[in-house]
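Researcher: Go.
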Amino acid sequence: MNVVAAQEMSDVGLLQCVELDVKVAARSLVRKLSFTVRRGSVTCLLGRNGAGKTLTMHTLAGLRAPAHGVITIDQRVLGQWSRRALARRVGLLTQMTEDPFPSTVLETVLVGRHPHIDFWRWEDEGDRAIARAALLAVGLDEFESRDVATLSGGERRRVAIATMLTQNPDLLLLDEPINHLDPHHQIGVLRLLREKAAANHAVFMSLHDAGLAARFCDHALLLFGDGEWLFGSTAEVLTEATITRLYGVQVREISWNSGRTFVAV
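Model: Structure:
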């Protein structure tokens, strides 16, 4: 792909929402949400508990229908994609991961290749090479023979991230990807996701740390839980006033040469 073609692709929204409403029971969580996620970008989703982050994420992934509005992936309405074709374009990392059957780490990560494997075909050496590269990227390359049931919560979380990397979707939707991770691995995963975006993918993830969002993300979508929302660049959207309103606690911004963060006061 030449430079001009790559630039044209990045200018077209990979994910677009127009007038999207997200509701649960009689409660309106998000009203008339409109925003675009482009290739090469990292977008964070922030909001207090119960604001609708997970339901919004599931709606964007096609797991539940919006109350109103249109979602498009690569300019095609979400409902027009077959599930198999959509799984090649969109990956979803959920908050919780269950392992109902015994499995090794490598076998678990290889599940990410299923959208790319023809029916009645087993994974081949190429698929295993992709899975091993993903395990290496999250620092679990020596764990491939371990039973997933023997892993810590943080190790299991990184296995889930490796599974999504093995899936290799254009759009990565991640619900709290750094949940259960220590600070070292939080930074490692966020840097990895930035590298994934730089390779012409798009990342959309929910976080709880506005400082990490300011450091690693290009854009932010804030959900206030009453239907109201705010979307824009992190430089514009993440301020003392908006974060105070978002979480209901007074915060102060602290800046230094390489970034900024927010602390409760």
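Model: The chain has one domain: 3-264.
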